[in-house]
Amino acid sequence: MLGYFLSTVLLMAFGYVYPAYQCYKEMEKNVVSKEQILFWCRYWILVAVLIVIESFADVIVSWLPLYGESKLAFVIYLWHPKTQGANYVYSVMLRPIVTQHEKEIDRTIMELWCRGKDIAVQFMRNGAYYGQTRIFEVLRYVSTQPKKKKKRERQSKLVDPPVA
């Protein structure tokens, strides 16, 4: 057992850094392979799904022995050149599910987008109202304060008048 810290570091290295570098190298080639680009797109789609699942699974099953090691082995399986598991998992598992529910997913995304915009507009209105109210309160406070005499006037009163 690697332990939480070591398995997390290895997951970052082999699940994110190394695949990102391989993806970079593929994109920077003079002749880009469409199949390799599709492979890396599939990989990153699966990683995004895994991150969402992981946020819930970590709470529920992180106590299981070899949980961190299993996550590490799975991400290596996804990108390893001999297995290229990303192609298999994407084609056999993820794609059929997403294809079947694509319309509902699109509708839900659109609804969330609209709700998010409405909430943002409401926050902006509330913020503008709050800011305007505070500015007027400050101006009202400043205008009700007794005027202070100018510094020169105060100093001239302190100096004795010239003797004639």
From TrEMBL:
It is a multi-pass membrane protein. Pfam families: TB2_DP1_HVA22. Coiled coil: none annotated. The keyword Zinc-finger does not apply. It is found in: Membrane. The chain crosses the membrane at residues 43-64. Keywords: Membrane, Transmembrane, Transmembrane helix. One of its GO terms (cellular component) is membrane. Belongs to the DP1 family. This is HVA22-like protein. It comes from Daucus carota subsp. sativus. The lineage of its organism: Eukaryota, Viridiplantae, Streptophyta, Embryophyta, Tracheophyta.
